[in-house]
């Protein structure tokens, strides 16, 4: 029998919950920024400021800088897959659907991540348990979107598809990172990835939405400051610390906490109201993630095997 995953310390739990709240609030801050600036400009601010902060962190820690054109090419591709595509699709999608609904659909990242890993990574088989988890998760996504998204395809349906497209891009980024960036310090990899993303997003925002203006309302700057500094730069550093303290398995739990935070903040600040099917779909999606995580089943087997 495989050993149970180790329990995590109260300090790691606090960090995990904190990260979940940080990411959950990012959906609200992005939606607020979108009231004044376009989706691509929103992303350019996010990657640009976060890039500068993370390179500052790398310098302060005196970490080795990456060398060679291959690693910088890998950063460019990683920035495209993990930042440019998903950030842009999700920012555009939030113009047409609620921030809480965006967070729920974003939780399907882990579902697509399992499929992508099974297809492209030799050591990530799609076991029976994982297949069940993926299936339940997909049913949850279908319930969240609702039959109306298929019967009456409109801009709201397209917004939901944009969010799902972003989660697929996240999943592919996970595979790319495993193949090309696993040998780098996590902070260096994150800074390099955001550099690659900024090389794409800043010119793209300029072409399609005009020069990046610094003459923005205080409310917009506060939103940018939150999602760029706190929810991107600081969150990446916290993410990798949790990874070191608790392992990748526990990080999936943060996905279950992000959506409720976004839903509550969206309801309080933006007066958003989600249909009941969204909550029902999230329960199924959460169940799929629990099945993928596997620890509940391991615990039951462990207890059943006791004399």
Quick recap of the structure?
Helices cover 79% and strands 0% of the residues. With 307 residues, it is an all-alpha fold. Mean pLDDT is 87; it is low at 1-5.
List keywords for this structure.
mainly alpha, disordered N terminus, single chain, 307 residues
Task: Characterize the structure shown.
With 307 residues, this protein is mainly α. The protein has one domain (10-304). It is 79% helix and 0% strand. It has 13 helices and no strands. The protein has helices at 10-33, 39-61, 69-94, 99-106, 109-120, 128-145, 148-151, 155-180, 186-209, 218-246, 248-269, 276-293, 295-304. Helix 2 (39-61) crosses helix 10. It is globular and about 45 Å long. The relative contact order is 0.22. The model is unreliable at 1-5 (pLDDT under 50).
Order of helices and strands: HHHHHHHHHHHHH
The profile of the biggest β sheet is: none
Task: From the alpha carbons, calculate the radius of gyration and give it in angstroms.
Answer: 19 Å
Counting helices, strands and paired strands, the structural category is mainly alpha
Q: Summarize the amount of helix as a percent range.
A: over 70%
């Amino acid at each position: 029998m495989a050993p149970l995953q180790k329990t995590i310390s109260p300090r790691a739990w606090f960090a995990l919950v904190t990260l979940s709240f940080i990411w959950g609030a990012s959906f609200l801050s992005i939606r607020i920024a979108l009231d004044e600036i376009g989706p691509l400009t929103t992303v350019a601010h996010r990657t640009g400021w976060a890039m500068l902060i993370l390179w500052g962190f790398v310098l302060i820690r005196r970490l080795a800088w990456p060398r060679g054109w291959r690693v910088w090419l890998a950063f460019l591709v990683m920035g495209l897959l993990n930042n440019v595509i998903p950030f842009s699709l999700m920012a555009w999608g939030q113009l047409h659907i609620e921030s809480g609904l965006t967070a729920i659909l974003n939780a399907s990242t882990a579902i697509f991540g399992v499929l992508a890993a099974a297809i492209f990574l030799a050591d990530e088989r799609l076991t029976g348990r994982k297949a069940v988890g993926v299936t339940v998760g997909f049913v949850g996504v279908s319930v969240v979107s609702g039959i109306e998204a298929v019967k009456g395809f409109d801009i709201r349906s397209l917004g939901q598809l944009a969010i799902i497209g972003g989660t697929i891009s996240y999943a592919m980024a996970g595979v790319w990172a495993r193949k090309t960036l696993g040998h780098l310090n996590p902070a260096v990899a994150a800074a390099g990835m955001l550099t690659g993303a900024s090389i794409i997003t800043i010119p793209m925002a300029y072409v399609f939405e005009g020069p990046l203006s610094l003459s923005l309302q205080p409310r917009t700057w506060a939103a940018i400051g939150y999602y760029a500094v706190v929810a991107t730069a600081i969150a990446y550093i916290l993410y990798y610390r949790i990874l070191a303290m608790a392992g990748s398995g526990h990080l999936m739990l943060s996905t279950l906490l992000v959506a409720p935070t976004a839903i509550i903040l969206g309801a309080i600040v933006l007066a958003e109201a989600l249909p009941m099917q969204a909550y029902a779909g999230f329960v199924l999606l959460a169940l799929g993630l629990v099945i993928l995580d596997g620890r509940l089943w391991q615990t039951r087997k462990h207890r059943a095997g006791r004399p």
